[in-house]
Amino acid sequence: xxxxxxxxxxxxxxxxxxxxxxxxxxxxxxxxxxxxxxxxxxxxxxxxxxxxxxxxxxxxxxxxxxxxxxxxxxxxxxxxxxxxxxxxxxxxxxxxxxxxxxxxxxxxxxxxxxxxxxxxxxxxxxxxxxxxxxxxxxxxxxxxxxxxxxxxxxxxxxxxxxxxxxxxxxxxxxxxxxxxxxxxxxxxxxxxxxxxxxxxxxxxxx
Length: 206
Description:
The protein is mostly helical. Helix content is about 75%, strand content about 0%.
């Protein structure tokens, strides 16, 4: 019975996160209230507060549900030695992220909320700082891959791994923003993989 109760509680928690994502997407984060989320999830406000102390905590849970698997995949792709050279692994990570956005509606909607439906002010100001901190971690992992590429002689002598990593991160962040906003897929989505390949080819030793 206890195990069943825990399973039910976890299912309710997941349903609340799904409802929050759908409400945030439709109304924007600022205009969404706990009452909106409760009604959408078919639960009481008390049920939400039993799992989440406030809307910010619920936003974090929504974000982490798609971001943590991305971090795991990034570690596997960028940090674990495999059959591909470091530059190809960077390219595979970037292209794989785009492919995952294309395949997974939950991830795609979450990114749309983060990039287009949230104002990072007041109680959400710390969320922006956390996002920036995570970006620094991603840049460090990309830098480590570029450093291995330099050791293998894959880069031109004047190319610095730290500068390349920052450039790649800024390029991909911009691409992600444009990809998410290109809802009809006529400007950026259809050529995202090609743009990533061109970006990485510029790094390869000629």
